[in-house]
Write a structure and sequence with these properties.
Elements (H helix, E strand, L loop, with lengths): L18 H8 L4 H4 L3 H27 L7 H12 L6 H13 L14 H5 L17 H4 L2 H8 L3 H14 L1 H23 L20 H6 L6 H6 L15 H11 L11 H5 L10 H19 L4 H26 L10
Bound molecules: zinc ion (2 copies).
The site of one zinc ion has 6 residues, from α12.
Length: 342
Amino acid sequence: MTTAYTRSPDERINWVRSIPFIVVHLIPLLAIWTGATLMDWAICIGLYVVRMFFITGVYHRYFSHRAYKMGRVMQFLMAFGGGTAAQKGALWWAAHHRHHHKYSDMQEDVHSPLKGFLWSHVGWILCNKFNETDYKAIKDFAKYPELVWLNKYHWVPPTLLGVACYLVGGWSTLIIGFFLSTVLLYHGTFFINSLAHVFGKRRYVTSDTSRNSFVLALITLGEGWHNNHHYYQSTANQGFFWWEIDISYYVLKMLSWVGLTKDLRTPPAHILAANRLRDGHPDIGMFDAKLAKAVAVFETAQTGASEYYRKRAEDLDALVKNTRQSALQIVRMPRVEPADAE
Ligand SMILES: [Zn+2]
Ligand SMILES: [Zn+2]
């Protein structure tokens, strides 16, 4: 299959280092021998929902996008909660996510959907390139030593949770309550990097392929409104209208009533009304993705052609790339807000 962007050599999957990740996927099969009680299943669902909130409501909306405020102790507790999801530390997670928004769907994007579905879903995590935390990208939170500690020893929170599960109900609780729910949580989260860029509807013009999906919003407690989010990233809510279910936002709102979170940012009305797109209509994001794919097919076809045609193909290729670059520069120019337009 031709993908729009080819992966660089350091984007190869490191199978040896990925063994623990693969083993975690196999552990739930041990339930064939241990069996599972109703309590194990209840813990599995409970831990999925609670930890999904920590990932979307905290790792994503707080640490990546600063969509609301919290006190320092609460911030640590929430980062610890997110840590139990075994998706590394808040600083690692948020630094990579900020990078995704900066370069959405471009060659540099850590999990660009244009490098293939599996790459955007899980491949990028299994290669060496994105192992380290880019502390420069997350300076605002890296100034807290307790968060840096948690980021370095990111295995502590999930280990403690696993031990707690074992103490509560023995092996079957560990296997189903902890491991199965962790695996489901992985793929629920990863769907936003993969499915939410190919499946669903586009409401707003963005320079990427993000989409809105009701089903994904249910699975991820609100993250499925991904086109909304790429369009206007800094808000605590991602469901922009009352019918767009966004459980994480409801929880953040409730926490604000008791003072544990504050200053929740929501989109202004003029932002909601602007840049609307009738689903299925072409916009720069879809245009760019299709063009990138076309260029890739074209480049593949080029190999093997005669010298004359290869030269013409190269000229055309350069022209297409230039046009695309200028189109993207235009679309990425800062939006002029009505207030500044005077
Ligand atoms: Zn985001
Ligand atoms: Zn995205």
